Amino acid sequence: MWKTIVRRFLIMIPQLFVLSLIIFMMAKFMPGDPFTGMITPETDPTRIEELREKHGLNDPWYEQYIRWIGNAAQGDFGMSYTFKRDVGALIGERAVNTFWLSLVSVIILYAIAIPLGVLAGRYHNSWLDRLIILYSFVSYAIPTFILALLFLFFFGYTLGWFPTSGSVDIKYDPGTFGYVMSKIYHMLLPAITYAVLATTTVIQYLRSEIIDAKTQDYVRTARSKGIPMKKVYSRHIFRNSLLPIAAFLGFTITGLLGGSIFIETIFGYPGMGQLFISSITSRDYSVITALVMLYGFLALLGSLLSDIIMSIVDPRIRIE
Amino acid sequence: MRTSEELLKITDLHTGFRIGDNYFDAVDGVSLTLRKNEILAIVGESGCGKSTLATSIIGLHDHNKTRVQGEILFKNKNLARMTEGDFNEIRGLEIGMIFQDPLSALNPLMRIGEQIEEGLIYHTDLTKNKRRERVLELLNQVGIPNAERVARQFPHQLSGGMRQRVIIAIAISCKPQIIIADEPTTALDVTIQAQILDLLIDLQKETGAGIILITHDLGVVAEVADRVAVMYAGQIIELAPVEELFANPKHPYTRSLFNSIPQMNSGNEKLNVIEGIVPSLMKLPRQGCRFAPRISWVPESAHEAEPTLHELSEGHFVRCSCHNHFYFKGEKEDIHHELYANK
């Protein structure tokens, strides 16, 4: 198994290399550059030209690429043009915010979706099932930004239960208890919004898996042993029904760092999604390329993690 | 070997499935007794209601879509009126069940040992260690070598025959008085079939349990059964001790079944078949002789209006009087031709 894992990591290197090439070229082909936004009637065009020359933006793209990939391989993704900071540190800081937000989101998501999916599957075709299906379709049909804005307006603005932007109240010092509580408080509304929107997949998967598992022969065998129905569900049906969710778990874990562009932007939460959008609009090449590389790596890592998780929960799957 | 002690007495059992707003009886007025120490075979084509009969006895049908009427008397309790909760006191403990497809009948995520142990947890007071011992003992009993290792394995690591042995171990784990085997050898290849049947016979002798063996394989019946009930369209149409049935089949359906077994040495290239198909549940004739449409050349007057079981000799019952007038289609036509030619 370890051999396979090492091999999978080695395969990632050429994959990431191709990705980096494509990403770098696409970023460069976008019209404009970091200094485009700075041009005002008072700007001296020669000054802009000097800056471009100084940052190597007038070099051919392959020279720029080689320079960039050489540094990136050593862990140096350069400086952000807009934030004037080291990209690694900038992403690291945002990633921490996003990680905690995503973690809270996923916990709320499973806390809502798993019980609902189990209930819908167990009592399928009952009014309860239909109600849950209705909910899951409605939440699936609502665009993220509509629900996010509604929640923000209703719970944040009208009722005033939650803060409407930011990740922490500035009056607290880092490391204090109040600081942590304030962080969690700021996360709740975006996390709930995300969870409500994402439940559909989990509910539907779990529901159909349970309906399917109920008719399986091994469930009939379990019933023929005379064990209570509750145990048949917990030991046989439920465990088997969780397999497809386990298959996604690797992606869910790596997705914790990805963040949600809509949610973070609307709730003004300084995370990865928001950074991604702002870096694109400001043509902040070093940030864009570093972020996309990171997302690519996470996607590859996610599939590997999923395979490993599957091999742990399903004895029929073994990584050879 | 047969004693008269009755384990299970089924009287006028009707099991119907709901389709739309109506119930259609898949088992239509079956009366049967299972005695201690005997293997009772129930034979019939697919869809004749034999598996439905089995699931009615052990209560494994879908309670929302199924209606069970009549009486299934076991230890003075009517199983036909039992709730799911009451059934759990009987299932596994007093009635064990063996299923058709060993490939899908075991939970793929659970170790063999755990799956056998499960019934013991709920039906016995054995401690964890005692249960482990019992699991190994059971695995040995059903002829599995390396019991310790197999107990830790998962179903996909075993062959079909081994898995069926595990299913049997589950069924007998609490020493039940009745074992229902629903086509236990259908999914296995022939050599394994013989082994599993031998195992069933041995276990039956050891435990003195009554076994209901459901099958469509007359070869299996001849090998293991003591008595045979032949089912057609939800009814028992012939019931007899196995030697009697094979020596002296009466009902046209039974005779047609025997006639349709390919003979190696007959030189007859043509396979004898039964005309028509088993009617679907919704189209089942509810009156008269159910087999009449498939032997249309036999005159209508030969059938009874309300066919009942008649005891022809001791323990040999046949439904309807049409067996007195039955002949195979070819036979009569030949006679007819001869007569015609002679004129």
Question: Quick gist of this model?
Answer:
The complex is a heterodimer of chains A (320) and B (343). By secondary structure, chain A is mainly alpha-helical.
Give me the CATH architecture of one domain in chain A, please: Orthogonal Bundle
Order of helices and strands of chain B: EEEHEEHEHHHHEHEHEEHHEEH
Q: Briefly note the CATH topology name of one domain in chain A.
A: MetI-like fold
Instruction: Give the end-to-end Cα distance of chain A, rounded to a whole number of Å.
Output: 6 Å
What features would you describe in this structure?
- Chain A has 320 residues and is mostly helical.
- Chain A has a domain at 94-281: MetI-like (MetI-like fold, Orthogonal Bundle).
- In chain A, 73% of the residues lie in helices and 0% in strands.
- Chain A contains 13 helices and no strands.
- Chain A has helices at residues 2-29, 45-54, 61-73, 87-122, 127-141, 144-158, 177-214, 217-224, 229-241, 243-255, 261-266, 272-281, 285-313.
- In chain A, helix 4 (87-122) crosses helix 7, helix 8 packs antiparallel against helix 9 (229-241) and helix 12 (272-281) packs antiparallel against helix 13.
- The termini of chain A are close together.
- Chain B has helices spanning 50-58, 84-87, 112-123, 128-141, 147-152, 160-172, 190-207, 218-224, 242-247, 252-259, 329-342, and strands at 6-19, 22-35, 39-43, 66-74, 77-78, 95-98, 178-182, 210-215, 227-232, 235-241, 309-313, 316-319.
- Chain B is 32% helix and 24% strand.
- In chain B, helix 6 packs parallel to helix 7 (190-207).
- Chain B is built from 11 helices and 12 strands.
- Chain B has 343 residues and is of the alpha/beta class.
- The mean pLDDT of chain B is 86.
- Chain B starts with 5 loop residues before the first strand and ends with a helix.
- The longest helix of chain B has 18 residues, at 190-207.
- The A-B interface holds A 216-218, 220-229, 231, 235-236, 239-240, 313-316 and B 58, 60, 84-85, 87-93, 96-97, 99, 101, 104-110, 115, 118-119, 121-123, 154, 156, 167, 170-171, 173.
